[in-house]
From TrEMBL, chain A:
Pfam families: ABC_tran (PF00005). Residues 29-149 form the ABC transporter domain. GO terms for molecular function: ATP binding; ATP hydrolysis activity. It comes from Pseudoalteromonas holothuriae. The keyword Hydrolase does not apply. This is Vitamin B12 import ATP-binding protein BtuD. Keywords: ATP-binding, Nucleotide-binding. The keyword Lipoprotein does not apply.
From TrEMBL, chain B:
Signal peptide: none annotated. The keyword Transmembrane applies. It comes from Pseudoalteromonas holothuriae. Keywords: Membrane, Transmembrane, Transmembrane helix. This is Uncharacterized protein.
Amino acid sequence: MIDVIKLHKQFANKRVFHNYTNQFMEPKCCILGENGLGKTTLFTLIAGLDPYYTGDILLAGKRVTALQDYVALGCDKIPFPDFLTARQILSMTSKSWVCDMPLTLAKAFGFEPFLDTLVKDLSSGNNKKLQLLNAIMRNTPYLILDEPSAALDQHGVEVLCHWLQSFSGQVLISSHEPQPFLDVGFVTQHLFSTEPVA
Amino acid sequence: MNYYQYRKKAFEYALKELLRQLSQFALMISTLFYIFLPGLVAGLFLGLGKVVQSDSVETANQMMVAYLLMQTLLLFVLKPVILDTPHRLFHFSLHSGRLKHLVADFTLLLVSHILLWLSLVLAFAMGWDKLMRAPHFVAFIVTQLSLAVVLLYRPQAVVWALGIAVVLLVLGLSNISYLVVFNAIVLVACWFKPLKFVYVPSQLNVWSFWLVYGLNNTWSLIWRMVIGLLFTLGVAIIGKERPELLHWYAPMVALIVLLLWASMCIKTTKLVQEHRLFWLSLKQQQAIVVTLHAMVFILYLLSWCLIVFVLDFDIFMLLTLLFMPLLQWCAARRPKSLAVCWASVSVLIYMIKILV
């Protein structure tokens, strides 16, 4: 369960959250909201990648000092250095977080032939697969995937949904095409609503 | 609009874009050196004078290599502008033959080749009789042109030829022989395979990341190294003629190279900032910044050692090394103040030198 309490987040000229409180209770939650509402911003805050905010973010009702240790994020807002290969990116994550390379999942995604491709040469779909692998491989109890099906091929979406079905932790996603995720047990919740959408 | 009109328009547009991109750098250089600009132009003519007539064959050969190196650096920057590289396929879609493309390329190359203009101005000023008494200078002008043309279509030949030319300096060939051999190498090297350094380690850490970055951004390293080398060689040649002035020039070379390497922190810091979330997601944000500055410092240290080796050690050159962290900090945190900071450090070092 993720609790966001009295969150205030502002960029130089734009206030994104003011006194924002919400609770994400569902183990598989798809957050809905129009473009520009702040979903990605909220995700980076929950993942501990942006310390510039006021308010509280609780995991399972507890305040944690290093959110990053518990939450992994896959998101377009984390651009990878484009002169590295996908394998190099994954190896850095593997080393930093002492986790295994996600070779089995890469194979299932059909991404294996692209592991030695430079990030700049990856298609948008393969770039998305790299983002997903990079987040999933950390095996954290909380997983956040921002627009995980965007640019992904049909097979990729199926593999992802299949993997998410077996994931035992809590997962938050945002998606404008949520149906494949709803089919595997995801519950939708609006960004500014505390109740799941019926 | 015909093809040539299009090429002219594309050249003007691309040149304007390039100048806009380089505006900050150009402003920094012109702010720092504007009082020395006439001296710089005079220095270029002085160098050409050394090519025409010099006390030793070696000095003239060194000067020729330095000029060819410099023109390669300048034309490498201008090459995409001359060739209109981003729209090259569009050119091919307009004509089946290559003649028109070659004519346009060659014309724009002549327009862009400033160092060739200088040589031609000097040749005209010398007059026909004097020019015939210095046939190696004519050969040098031809080499300037041939090397520029080869740079457009076979850049790997230029890299090979310049590399071999530096080695050939030790043979002490006459100026004409040296240029003939150089052109022969350029011609043969046109069929050499391009040099390519491939380093793709499967495991990366923050140190090897910068190594991979360097190999993928060799241009950033090469132009700094070449400019540093040209200044060092230039001052070494001056030092041969006026050794009593060397101690005034040597710290200036160290300071110029200091600015070149410190400015590298501008681009690399921007890269780190662009991927801030990536580094944060790896918990390596601090480590990547520390290694960035350590790498840049090491690069300056290596250049500094070369300067000391060629121009002899001076205590004031050591001061430049001590100021490097300050310049790096300024480039990373206050890039707009880098020029002022560098100028202040330069004035301070020379003040101390005068007073002590």
